[in-house]
Amino acid sequence: MENCRARYLIFFQYLGTKYSGVMKTPPHQSTLGVENYLENALQKLRPHNEVCLYISSRTDAGVHALCNSAHVDIQRRSGKLPFTAKVLTEALNYHLKPEPISVVGACRVADTFHARFRARARTYTYRLLTGVAHHAQLPVTERGLCWALRDAELNVRAMQEATSSLLGTHDFSTFQALNSETPFKSPVKTLVQARLEPGPESFTQRHFNRNLQFWELTFKSPSFLYKQVRRMTGALVAVGQGRLSVPQLQELLEVRDSLAYPQNMCAPPTGLFLTGVEYEESDLMPDS
Known about the structure:
- This protein is about 20% helix and about 25% strand.
- By secondary structure, the protein is an alpha+beta fold.
């Protein structure tokens, strides 16, 4: 029997606090990427090929994911059938212990499938917590998982108006941080969802301090620019704090200049979660 190669789409989650980001880093680097640990777990399955992950959505150091995805080819030795999705998921999670990384599912895909380019949409949620006058008021279970603001209240109506102005197709150059890929990417993106709503009360919040209030900013688009969500969040919080007006935010959008974005306004990575990567059902193959 010939060696059997199969391509899988893997969905995984992680807490990004201790990692350099999701992307692979050189093994001698002191802080590794989530991809390093995933590839190491895959290699422990003893594939016949050298595995290489193709991540769908990049996240920076400190950013978390409830649902990121990647595709990988796994070639088993002669006489071995391809892994089922269930076996692959369980085996990877066994080898990922005790890292705060978990594979939540897997499925077979066509040999031509690409996790990044076949993704239809990505959803990010940013968690805000108001009323944290002192760091000791932040429950330990929420540290690194939200942006703790001293403000007891935000101007929610103004924030919602500003959020609505970001919906649709725009040139988001102002909300893009510059990097080596900037010249090669179009700054025109389409936000199909942008909303602000109260976050659910957490267990620790209910027992620790009833004056704390969670808020969630959710953005959905086929793709995003580098640090676009964090920059939009920082500007929207500035609107809620009265440091930026709604017309001023609209002017920032219209000026289409990354350097026009105010310094020190970008939201920290700690409250950002990649919550979903969507694909066409027809791209996902059942186990054979």
